[in-house]
Amino acid sequence: MAVVHISRSEAASDFEALMARAANGDEIHIEADTRLIVKLLLADAPGPRLLSESLKILKERGSTVTLDGEFGRDLEEVIRSHREPLSPPAWD
């Protein structure tokens, strides 16, 4: 599955092709000035994984990662340190 970032005007010019890509499993992000406006994805696409499911998978894989009380603070710091998109949209 690919994640496609596209501007509103580009999406409007060929919406049928975007619908086809979404039907094939791609996730389409229609954006305005890098702000997500609409997300197109397959209707029966799996939803986000619960934390309990993630922890179970990590345990099964033998991970030694610990999600302690500081996890939220650490995650917020990571988010604050990357305010710019890591992969800017193609139209920029």
Detailed description of the structure:
The chain is of the alpha+beta class and 92 residues long. It folds into two domains: 1-42, YefM-like fold (3-Layer(aba) Sandwich), CATH 3.40.1620; 49-82, no CATH class. It contains four helices and three strands; from the N terminus they run E-H-H-E-E-H-H. It has helices spanning 8-13, 15-23, 51-60, 71-81; strands at residues 3-7, 27-32, 35-40. Strands 1-2-3 form a three-stranded mixed β-sheet. A hairpin with a 2-residue loop joins strand 2 and strand 3 (35-40). The longest helix has 11 residues, at 71-81. The protein is flat and about 50 Å long. The relative contact order is 0.16.
Order of helices and strands: EHHEEHH
The proportion of residues in beta strands is 15-25%
Helix content: 25-40%
Strand order of the largest sheet: 1-2-3
Shape: flat
How far apart the termini lie comes to: 23 Å
Weakly predicted, low-confidence segments: none
Number of helices: 4
Briefly, what CATH class of the largest domain? Answer: Alpha Beta
Q: What would the average pLDDT be, to the nearest integer?
A: 82
The name of the CATH topology of the largest domain is: YefM-like fold
Specify Rg, calculated over alpha carbons.
17 Å
Architecture (CATH level 2) name of the largest domain: 3-Layer(aba) Sandwich
The biggest sheet, with number of strands, parallel, antiparallel or mixed sense and barrel status, is: 3 strands, mixed
DSSP strand tally? 3
Secondary structure category = alpha+beta
- The overall number of domains is 2
